[in-house]
Structure formats: C-alpha cells, structure tokens
Amino acid sequence: MFQRQGEDEWVLLLSTWMLLKYIDRKDGTSKRKKSMTRVHVAILFVFVFSSGIFAQQTISPTENSSEWIQLFDGKSLDGWSPKIRGHQYGENFSNTFRVKDGAIQVGFEGYGQFKERFGHLFYKEKFSNYIIRCEYRFIGEQCPGGPGWARRNSGIMLHCQDPDSMSKDQDFPVSIEMQLLGGFGSGNRTTANLCTPGTNVVMDDKLVRRHCTSSKSKTYHGEQWVTVEIEVRGGETIKHKIDGKVVLEYDKPQLDPSDANAKKLIKGGRLILNEGYISLQSESHPCEFRKVELKKLDKS
Prior knowledge:
The chain is α+β, with helices and mostly antiparallel strands. About 20% of the residues lie in helices and about 35% in strands.
C-alpha cells in the first residue's frame, strides 16, 4: 500500500513539473498571468497531495483488512451443524434448523412439547477478532412447553466451546451470548443484551457475575427484521450494536470457574476467552436469521 502511494506521489509531482514548464514556455501570456497560473497550480498540488496523505491516515486498517465473509449462503446449511439437547452433535432433531426463503429458519413443528430441548447451530470455524452482522426476526407462536422467559427469545453465541466437547444433555454451550428478544406488542423489552452461560465479563473495571445484562436498545415488536452487529476483539472488548450504534460494551470475556461445564475447559488456570465458535440459538420460539456475514479484523 505504501509503495503504491509513493508511485502515485511521483506521478503527481512529475505532472505538476511538466505543467509548470508548459506555462513558462507558452507565448502570448503576460508574466503576471503566468505567475498567477503557477500559484494556482502549486495550490492545487498541495491540496491533492495533502488530501492523499489525510485519506491514508483516516482509513482504519482493521476495518479494511478483509472483505465480508458470507457465513450463510442463503440456500443451504453448508458449514453449519446443530447441537440439540438430548441429541448428538450433528443430529438435526425434527428438522429444527432449515432454510426457507433465503433465511435460516428455526421451527418446532415436530416437537409436541418443548421439553427443554434447547439447540444451537454451530458454524464450522473458530474466530477471534471480527465483526459479525446479521438480521433476525421472531415469527409465529412459541412451542408448547417452552419456558415463559424464552418467549420471543433467541441469541447469537460467541467464543463458544467446541460443540464436540458438549455433553449430550448440556443445554447451552459455555459462551458469551448476544441475547435477542422481541417485544410483546406493548411495554419495553430491550434486545442485544448480554447473557453468560458458564462465563463472566468485566464492566467498569468490575467482574460481572450476573447471568444477564440489559442493553440500551429500544423495543422491537412484531415480525420486523432487526439488524444486529457484534464487534469482537479477542479476549479484550466486545461491543453490541444495532443499526451501527453501540448499545452494550464489556471487556475480558472469561470462563467462570464456579460453573461445572466451564471448569472442564480451564487449562493451566487461564480464564480469558480469546477465541471460539459462533452459534445461533433455538430456545422454543420460532425465528429466522438471514444475511449472516463476518469480517475478520486485525489484532488491535
């Protein structure tokens, strides 16, 4: 990038020199007019040159280091595998996760009663520093037997444990969750909240042990699509965003040594979570995800 910019500067400098020489040799032009023209050319050169430097300084290398990766192709679940409580990793019980009309749809038609069969659809790769963005919405009615708190409730799980390490009856992966909630038609119910199955975070320099923390978002009622974004900086800062605005921020995602599932993952006393898998949740209320995309970031 710097070599290319240097070449451009030399081309600009040479072009300016040639233009000035042309002005000097031009007949029929007064000295005063030539002098004014030279001043104008010099000012234009300084402006263009400084603008190029400014543009280079204001472009963030972490935001432009890679292109957006489409994690979901809009047609299939290629690259994704389910883990549903009571079933082995890879078994898509009752076609819980499927693709319909260009979206990943979560449905429970074959469940009868929900029976706490919480599910997660895992992407095949681990990530550390990245931005993930998608649209989601809730549709239809909650599956019979689903807990009251899970009505119009789903999530995007970050820094997840390897799904192969989950026990058959484990309900949630050890992870950091952006909790996605929908309104009930009236009242307030924020979304893009934080939940911490098997984990803790730091906020305002204090370790936060509570399971869920509300964001500053507005409430989204009905079946409208909502765009959410999460900026993940490894084991440092994580930001939840809606329509590009930060609604929640925290630091140092880490394993909770008091949690039975997390305790199995602690190696050498290290608690900080620097990377992990991504999964989409099924918690008893039908929902859809689309435009699931990710951009890798350089380490800050």
